[in-house]
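Supplementary Methods S3. Input chains for the assembly prediction are listed below.
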Amino acid sequence: MRYHRPGLDVAAHTLLIIGALAFMLPVILAVLASTQSPGTLFSGTLPLSFGTSGLDHYMTLLTEPVRGVGVPAWRLMLNSLLMALGIAVGKLTIAMLAAYALVFFRFPFRRCCFWLIFMTLMLPIEVRIVPTYGVVAELGLLDSYPGLVLPLLASATATFLFRQFFLTLPPELMEAARIDGAGPWRFFIDILLPLSRTNIAALFVIMFIYGWNQYLWPLVTITSADHATLVTSLKRLTIATDGTPPWHLATAMTVLALLPPVVVIILMQRWFIKGLVDTEK
Amino acid sequence: MATLELRRLRKRYAGGAEVLHDIELNIDHGEMIVVVGPSGCGKSTLLRMVAGLETISSGEIVINGECVNAQEPAERDIAMVFQNYALYPHMSVFDNLAYSLKNRRTPKDEISRRVNETAQLLDIAALLDRKPRQLSGGQRQRVAMGRAVIRQPQVFLFDEPLSNLDASLRVQMRQDIRALQKRLDITSLYVTHDQTEAMTMADRLVVMNAGRIEQIGTPMTLFRKPATRFVAGFIGSPAMNFLSGNAGDLPGWLPRVPEETTEPLTGDISIGIRPEHIALTTPNAGQIDGHIELVEPLGSESLVHVRPTGHESRLVVRHVGTEQPDAGQRTGLNLQGPFHLFDHHGQRLATRPRLADTTCSMEP
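Predicted structure tokens for the full assembly:
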């Protein structure tokens, strides 16, 4: 909707710009700080321009073992990436299949199943961390990729969103597919999956960032440097056991931690727009 | 080419509600059977049971002599056209048509040959690359038809396929469907609530009411000799007029009705007369006079609603001609018959064969 009122335009843009700045400022400061020499950072004032170190700190992080962790940052990024992808893909797969069952199949206690899934929304990882740790330990999966991903796989939110989307599809679609000789899997793969494209893209972004930002669970379950994630390592880097924390490295690593989610958003954004432009149905 | 038989078919829902009672129907090779009835009469449920989309509580569905109760929809060799078409929104028209063949592992070149053939047949060859959302309602309808035709199934099932189209397109499409069905000679079961559609398309018509078949017959049989009061009221537009009363106490102005039946008239009966069998005449020249309450001009004819003097119910008269009487006027009514008599259960009472041009005398 568009109104021809210049005053409104100005006010709206002012608000938008303030909002954008509030979000961007910390990021800009982190980028600027990561290019300063350690000495400049310790002087107490942060210059609002690029420093002299350039990309040196990044090179240090990516090539040399990170202090307090023991492996270079690229390894940490890889671990985080594996965890985030595992969580995002796993969550989407499980949520879609669960929603598929809930919407398209008639089985006993269907509503009951739905409410049980829905209720797990009230139990985030923080609440169930002790029993979850116990289960993962029993399975012998502590300090491993599967142990990192598995407890975070089920998603009531995604199940719920897919369920709501599937409910909007006309039931005749499945009936037509049945008559056309498509079994349950064919229907899922040939019809539901392509129709859910935009939903999948949106949820993938959300779930990837959720996975990437995981802190508590990796902190508890991961003990070796080989499986350490970037976000938990960031904390270790800043623990100043001998003198001052290396802020120049910490800010650089923060920027590194920002990059993959940004890439995912930029890539998926094109899908959103595509989904919005040629609306199906 | 196939026959379709429904044997004592019943449908009961889990809650105990029985929506279909003992449906018996035999459909011949290449026959077009139209099932018509008001909404909620069970006609769609019946169709979906034949398709295999609804479970069967008891009874049998037999296609070509083989009971298909236990078969999946895809195994029954039927094709269905849905009311909302149910085209796959993300697939092109080509893929929509090809989907059932793909699932049956038809070779690629045969798929494209048959898709092109079907597209020619339905005049949608220019649309093969489009997505359903880029099509008009009529085009979507054709694609839905194409999806049914392409497999050359044993039986076509139509679930109110024209009700989402506008009036003129509906007339066009019903002719097209009829022509196509005759040309391909495929046994068809067509469900609709529109009695005009039913009359014009059917080889035989099945009128359903409250989960039961009221009557099966050719459209003209049902029109001329409705077996029940329900059929009489449902078939024909505008609907038949009904006068009810006790057989022993019929209004004197009704012309010789008791003499029309070969059965003794007792209890409450209904007398039906079609709007085209009543004529307007000058006051005092017919059997009874009345007030014109409403005139609905339709062009070449008008529907005139008349309230006979001293009666509750209105009679609708089909008045042919472009000149129309004024509302509020007094008029005479000439009830010419034939009359349809129904007992208090709504069953038709046998009537004497009518003598040609019997004139109705006015009661004293």
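Residues 69 and 233 of chain A are 6 Å apart (CA to CA). Chain A has one domain: 34-277.
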